[in-house]
Structure formats: C-alpha cells, structure tokens
Amino acid sequence: MLASDRLVGGAAATLAAFTAVLTVTGGCARGTGASPVPSVVADIVLTFAGPVNDAFYYFIAIDADDDINDGPVPVAAGPYWGNGWGAGSFTHFVQYNQGVYQVFREVLSAELRSAGGGILAVSGTPQWTDTGTITLTVGPLTFGTVMVSGAGMITSVTNNGDQNAGTLTVATDAAGNIVAGSVAFTPAANGGRSLTPSEAAQLAALNA
Predict the structure, then answer these.
(1) 52, 66, 69, 77: which has the fewest Cβ within 10 Å?
(2) Where are the domains of the chain?
C-alpha cells in the first residue's frame, strides 16, 4: 500500500466545484531568488456534491500508466489508516486543505502493522525467593486461519501475529531481584525469530 507523507483521519469530500492546478516543471534548478518557470501546466477540475469543509483533507491521485485496473483506489476508513489514504498505482497527487493546494510525488512506504500476540503481562507471586534461574519456554506456534474478502487488488495474504517462540532465561538473587546481565532470549528453531529493536531495548533495560 502507498502512504503519503501526511496521514489524515478524513471524511467524505464535498464540494460544488473547484480547480486544482498541477504544475510540472522542466527542471529543479533555480536562479537566485527566482521562481521556476513551468514548461507544462495541467488544469485539474474536480466536482463534488456539496461545500468543502476546510478542516478536512482532499486528495486527487494521478496515475498516468493508462491502466485503470491497477488503481488508484481510496482507503476510505479504518482500520488501515496507518498505511495511508490510498492504494494501487499512482505517481503524484494534489492535496487540498484550508485553501492551500500542494502537489506531491508518491514514494513507496514500509507497510505498518499493528502489534499482536506475544506475552503482554505476567501476574502472580513466586512460590519461593531463593537464588536461581527462571526459564520460560514458549513452544511451537500455531497461526489461526485467514479470512479474506474482496476482489481486484488482493494478490497475497500473510498471517503474521508477530509471535515468537523461544526460551527466556532470568537469574535472580536471594532477594528475588533480577541479576544484571542475566536476562537472555534464545529463539526456537520452530517459530522463533530475532528480537525487534523495541524488544531488544526492553531486554537491555532488564539487564541494566
């Protein structure tokens, strides 16, 4: 999915009629204090059913590959706002907000995923406080089934709950406190993976 450099939580666009002017410049060089002179100017006219709400953002996606089957298509609502407002094939877009038009060139962005699975909290009271080593082992993982609906833009599906099998080892002293430098995680051969930077930072904090 494509993501612009400004994410919005938008609403349906409404407007009687307005014109966005897209300027395509012939080069990037500028003289001292001089504005670039465009070699081509395209007038883009967009008509809506009602008035514009300047608190919203409005987008005009531009796709020049002469293929209407690969998009662009809008992402009109959640839960995928983290991945942007549009998907499919487009190279530029015009953004309108609060009386200002801006032209952007689209770039591919890393896909954002919501964290899921894993151990979020541990509760209870240890049965003893002797010095020793505590080992927590997470066995092989079983992912759930995937349900997909829709047509046109779906090319593949991956079920990734961000889970991680492995062994977490913690050493404690006589008072039950974690011994600095003793916390370690070993990924399992089946279902294990390396720690993410965020997870590694948490482990380092435990070892401090």
Answers:
(1) 66
(2) 18-105, 113-142+160-208
